[in-house]
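hi! just following up on the protien thing from before. the input was this:
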Amino acid sequence: MTDLLLELVTQYGLIILAGTIFLAAMGAPVPGTVLLVLSGAFAASGDMEPVSVLLVAFVAAVAGDVTAFAIGYKGGAWLRGKLGGQISKAEAFMEKWGGPGGFLSRWLVAPIGPTLNYVAGIGRFSWPRFVLWDALGEVIWVGLYVGIGVLFSSSALALVDMIASASWVILGAIGMWFMGKRIIKVAKRAR
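and the predicted 3d structure came back as:
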């Protein structure tokens, strides 16, 4: 996957970056963070323009977040039925932390960020406040991971592989947890 991503980024650069970051912000299982690190490394080597990388990634991230918010706003009841437990966890987080929670979900607790976008829309969170906290958080997320790519550009491929591997381990653990819950639920019903 990393080799394919590397080839695509060298050929299509900012277009791939924008599309991937937009989709990641909406919750698609794409390697957004990995691509930010890789883009930072390309920026450090002169293969991509650093300011363009930062601006394109930031705009794509905020656009994806706002799109997910709008989907949640318009399709709240349907989404609540489809995402059930994820929605409940994100709602609890949003109730506890509010706008600052949106900020933190962009970079510190990023796995809940995309779901939180939908939840903020479903819960009719203030759109201007959402965008403000979202944009502040995306500045940190984009700057942090592009900066890591720049800082470690000489060993970026090893770093990207490490991040990608960690992502798959986390995704696998989450999948196993959901399967375990499902198995327990089915076993209880069978009694």
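The CA atoms of residues 41 and 153 lie 4 Å apart.
Residues 2-190 form one domain.
cheers
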